[in-house]
Amino acid sequence: MSQIGIRHLHAFIEVARSGSFTRAAEHLHLTQSALTATIKQLEQDAGLTLFDRTTRRVVLSAEGERFMPVAERMVSDFNAALDDLRARAELQQGRVSLAGSPSVITRLVPGALVEFRASYPSIQIDIRDESAGSLEQRVLNNEVDFAIAGNHSQQPELSYSPLLRDRYGLVVPSDHPLAQSSQLRWQQLPEDDLLLLSGDTGIRAQLERFSKNGLIPIELERVQIEVSNPAGMAALISKRLGVSLLPALAADTHSFDGLAFIPLDAPVIEREICIITRKGRALSPAAAALLEQVRLYLEQVRLPKWVTSV
């Protein structure tokens, strides 16, 4: 196997340009014997003489003349690749891809991006609004660097780092008889049609687990309409097609303006929002910087009522 590497190419180019082993050794900060050995190894590996040596000067042979532009291009490509790696490490360029639940993408990510973009304007950002099951799969498939959402299925290959907790409540039209209530017990849920998010969402999966375990008195057979995202749910509630159960953050977007959120207790049920990453996979410098900016933003911003940082 060839032992020729980038140092051999550097040595070859420097000798060719200077026309002297002595001057080339000085420029490369090598001893002349070390440089001579490096060139000899390159020629032996190539099976060709690359330099014609005289008592006064070292010049490229015909084969050396042909190899010179190739060597220069290889060194240039290598240096460009190194510069690219350094730039990414220094956050001068790169790409971050993240996924999040609709409420996270709407309510938390934009504020964090303002500061991040001001600090790192050259970083490209890809944001995906996904259901819980889909975004976990994207992290597993390395399609996104990380996700921010609830723990949907406790995948063994994923790491879930708690970030926020938000309390479940009842969402009703602002003129609903219960709209002015400060809180309700789960047993006091009204007889209105119950609207729920679809089964592929983390919120629905969590409610079904609580119901199956007997923690909350939800009769899933009451559900008349399902919808895949909170914004669609808000539109249905506004048209008085029913009421819904949602965590506080999901009910704190502009889509829910004009609707009332009533926290539920006995028991108090909370959703845990996590940073989801793949175990054993280190985040890129850009992704780590964005994640740190999200954490800093949450420390500084005033969170909605019934939402707490962990």
From TrEMBL:
Keyword terms: DNA-binding, Transcription, Transcription regulation
InterPro entries given in the database record: HTH-type_LysR_regulators, LysR_HTH_N, LysR_subst-bd, WH-like_DNA-bd_sf, WH_DNA-bd_sf
Domain HTH lysR-type: 4-61
One protein family per Pfam: LysR_substrate
Organism: Marinobacterium alkalitolerans
Protein's name according to its UniProt entry: LysR family transcriptional regulator
Membership in a protein family: Belongs to the LysR transcriptional regulatory family.
Keyword Transcription appears in the UniProt entry: yes
Database matches in PROSITE patterns: HTH_LYSR (PS50931)
Claim: Transcription regulation is one of the keywords in the record: yes
